[in-house]
Design brief:
The complex is a heterodimer of chains A (about 110) and B (about 120).
Chain A: E1 5-6, E2 9-12, E3 18-23, E4 33-37, E5 44-48, E6 61-66, E7 69-74, E8 83-90, E9 99-101, E10 105-109
Parallel strand pairs in A: 2-10
Antiparallel strand pairs in A: 1-3, 3-7, 4-5, 4-8, 6-7, 8-9, 8-10
Chain B: E1 3-7, E2 10-12, E3 18-25, E4 32-39, E5 45-51, E6 58-60, E7 68-73, E8 78-83, E9 92-102, E10 109-112, E11 116-120
Parallel strand pairs in B: 2-11
Antiparallel strand pairs in B: 1-3, 3-8, 4-5, 4-9, 5-6, 7-8, 9-10, 9-11
Classes of the chains: A mainly beta (about 110), B mainly beta (about 120).
Chain lengths: ~110, ~120
């Protein structure tokens, strides 16, 4: 399958830690990247590769991977972290030169 | 700073054509691969196409292969998406995005435009 699977919705109490996961066959061979999207805005890259943060992304965002699962962890979630989060990696159905996104996870900060 | 500005969206009838443009600035456009990604209203992101920094290789999602063509003009710092045989299900905001890796495909998209809306409707 070329798909990446994410939980549709996750919630976290303010200041607590939350993990958002992404499952797919391609993750056994390729790292994921993670994007944050707030309503009416373009996506923003927050994590890529093994565990890399672009400049300007707070260090409360981190990434990890094991087997067919990639994870985005937010340690000490803030109100401004409430958003949709998407994982992205390579297609695993035979053509690794194509991209695929997960269905997205809506994060609610309580 | 890096800027990506899409244009060319609008309303088109089923079966029609449209060409999107993405004007790039703030980085060496000719050194990076570029992507198109779309998002249907209220839905998730869908990767559409990639073009290598020099235009020598192009890859497409199955949903658009044979109908859409990605291209670039490095002398104008502009990326294009020619969309033919448009269908209702192609209705979406179309984003152009820069690949993070110099020269080659990484599928890490580090800069995105604000998007342009394409509506396919009769």
């Amino acid at each position: 399958s070329s798909e990446l699977t994410q939980d549709p919705a996750v919630s976290v109490a303010l200041g607590q830690t939350v993990r958002i996961t992404c499952q797919g066959d391609s993750l056994r061979s390729y790292y994921a990247s993670w994007y944050q999207q707030k309503p009416g805005q373009a996506p923003v890259l927050v994590i890529y590769g093994k565990n890399n943060r672009p400049s300007g992304i707070p260090d409360r965002f981190s990434g990890s991977s094991s087997g067919n699962t990639a994870s985005l962890t937010i340690t000490g979630a803030q109100a401004e972290d409430e958003a949709d989060y998407y994982c992205n990696s390579r297609d695993s159905s035979g053509n690794h030169l194509k991209g695929v996104f997960g269905g997205g996870t809506k994060l609610t900060v309580l | 700073q890096v800027q990506l500005v899409e244009s060319g969206g609008g309303v088109v009838q089923p079966g029609g054509s449209l060409r999107l443009s993405c004007a790039a600035s703030g980085f060496t456009f000719s050194s990076y691969g570029m992507h198109w990604v779309r998002q249907a209203p209220g839905k998730g992101l869908e990767w559409v196409a990639f073009i290598r920094y020099d235009g020598s290789n192009k890859y497409y999602a199955d949903s658009v292969k044979g109908r859409f063509t990605i291209s670039r003009d490095n002398s104008k710092n502009t990326l294009y998406l020619q969309m033919n045989s448009l269908r209702a299900e192609d209705t979406a905001v179309y984003y152009c995005a820069k690949d993070l890796r110099l020269g080659e495909l990484s599928l890490f998209l580090d800069y995105w435009g604000q998007g342009t809306l394409v509506t396919v409707s009769s």
